[in-house]
């Protein structure tokens, strides 16, 4: 968390607050505002907490109702200016999940399913006005079992609710990039060239495998994927 805080501080000039919802605030930098994890509010006896991120759509989240928030997952690296994430006009911005992965031709066997999956957002980085989208959490809590039956995970459910209301907007492609698919040369080419940061990228994510810990340990997850020299990524990750 401290690393992410320093990355944001380095790449966001406008006045801002860095808030961490956590159940363990020990060791956090003094600049990090630590708050308890928000309650999802599941009905009594319902123990499925896999979709806990939907608690971010509480009306009263942390007392921040009405404020603009940029949510960032922990397992990413900020590599450049974050201002574009605040400058775009709109209600809700999120990564298009397909923008982080290579095309999946076999998915087109089911065109309806393919269209939906192409519209799904990846909630690693999204911007919203706190409290303005409480209908997402309301819809989930109205019938958690039906939500789990109809959707594979919270990202799909969130996307479905936004799409119903015509509020889904995606970050311009290239602002958020996949380390594996956008930075690492494909297949055997990784043995001849090191990973590079695409021009215009602001955040590097570790969608799929390898995960961030694997990458920094030099593990590519596949025998044909060499990680190589990632000094530029390490420098961004350890930003002061």
Please count the beta strands (DSSP E, at least 2 residues each).
9
SS field, number of helical segments: 9
Q: What class, by secondary structure content?
A: alpha/beta
The main sheet orders its strands as 3-6-5-7
Write down the overall geometry: globular
Ranges with pLDDT <50 over ≥5 residues?
none
Residue share in helix:
25-40%
Radius of gyration: 19 Å
Strand content: 15-25%
Q: What do the pLDDT scores average to?
A: 94
Compressed to H and E, one letter per element, the order equals HEEEEHEHEHHHEEHEHH
Report on the structure:
By secondary structure, this protein is an alpha/beta fold. The protein contains nine helices and nine strands. A four-stranded mixed β-sheet has the order 3-6-5-7, covered by helices on one side. The radius of gyration is 19 Å and the shape is globular. The mean pLDDT is 94.
Briefly, what is this?
This protein is an alpha/beta fold. It has nine helices and nine strands. The protein has helices spanning 2-11, 84-87, 111-119, 134-142, 144-150, 154-164, 179-183, 212-216, 231-237, and strands at 18-21, 32-35, 68-72, 76-78, 93-96, 121-129, 169-170, 176-178, 203-205.
């Amino acid at each position: 968390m401290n690393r992410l805080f320093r990355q944001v501080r380095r790449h966001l000039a406008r006045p801002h607050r860095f808030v961490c919802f956590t159940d363990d605030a020990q060791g956090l930098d003094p600049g990090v505002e630590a708050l308890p994890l928000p309650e999802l509010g599941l009905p009594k006896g319902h123990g499925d907490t896999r979709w806990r991120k939907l608690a971010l759509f509480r009306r009263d989240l942390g007392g921040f109702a009405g404020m603009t928030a940029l949510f960032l997952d922990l397992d990413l690296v900020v590599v450049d200016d974050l201002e574009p994430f605040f400058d775009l006009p709109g209600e809700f911005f999120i990564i298009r999940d397909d923008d982080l992965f290579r095309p999946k031709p076999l998915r087109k066997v089911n065109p309806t399913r393919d269209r939906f999956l192409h519209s799904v957002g990846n909630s690693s980085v999204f911007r919203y006005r706190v409290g303005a989208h409480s209908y997402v959490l309301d819809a989930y809590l109205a019938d958690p079992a039906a939500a789990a039956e109809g959707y594979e995970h919270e990202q799909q459910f969130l996307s479905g609710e936004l799409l119903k209301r015509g509020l889904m907007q995606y970050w311009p492609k290239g602002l958020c990039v996949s380390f594996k698919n956008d930075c690492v040369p494909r297949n055997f080419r990784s043995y001849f060239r090191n990973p590079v940061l695409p021009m215009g990228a602001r955040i590097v994510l570790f969608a799929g495998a390898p995960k961030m810990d694997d990458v920094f340990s030099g593990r590519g997850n596949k025998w044909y994927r060499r990680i190589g020299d990632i000094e530029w990524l390490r420098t961004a990750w350890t930003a002061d």
